[in-house]
């Protein structure tokens, strides 16, 4: 059973936060971990899309030269745009990930 719990920790760490609970049939813990992780991942994707769209708009308008250095400088300015909770979505996702991996190892050492 201990090897199964270590595999659960690896699933949570390498596949998706909370995925390791599913083989252990800990569905409530899986739901409590996977749902916020999916919401945070949605926030990360949303921030990425909005900022890349803003950069593309600047490129199409001719305000930014199509070379790497100019685009990086423009991206730094675009990154200053605040999007609310989505700005912290990466931290929330990492917290879900680290918590599920830590809990998987805790479950493995518990038995």
Multimeric organization: single chain
Number of helices: 4
Structural class: mainly alpha
* Residues in β-strands, percent: under 5%
Mean pLDDT: 86
- Order of secondary-structure elements: HHHH
Q: Could you tell me how far the N terminus lies from the C terminus, measured between alpha carbons in angstroms? A: 8 Å
Structural notes for this entry:
There is one protein chain. With 111 residues, the chain is mainly alpha-helical. Helices cover 74% and strands 0% of the residues. Helix 1 runs antiparallel to helix 4 and helix 2 (27-61) runs antiparallel to helix 4. It is elongated, with a radius of gyration of 19 Å.
Features:
mainly alpha; 4 helices; elongated
Give a short synopsis of this structure.
The mean pLDDT is about 85. The protein is mainly alpha-helical and about 110 residues long.
């Amino acid at each position: 059973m201990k090897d199964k719990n270590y595999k659960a920790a690896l699933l949570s760490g390498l596949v998706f936060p909370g995925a390791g609970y599913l083989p252990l049939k800990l569905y409530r813990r899986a739901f409590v971990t996977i749902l916020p992780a999916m919401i945070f991942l949605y926030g990360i994707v949303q921030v990425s899309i909005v900022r890349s769209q803003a950069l593309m708009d600047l490129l199409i308008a001719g305000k930014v030269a199509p070379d790497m250095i100019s685009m990086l400088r423009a991206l730094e300015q675009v990154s200053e745009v605040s999007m609310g909770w989505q700005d912290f979505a990466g931290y929330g996702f990492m917290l879900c990930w680290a918590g599920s991996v830590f809990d998987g190892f805790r479950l493995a050492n518990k038995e």
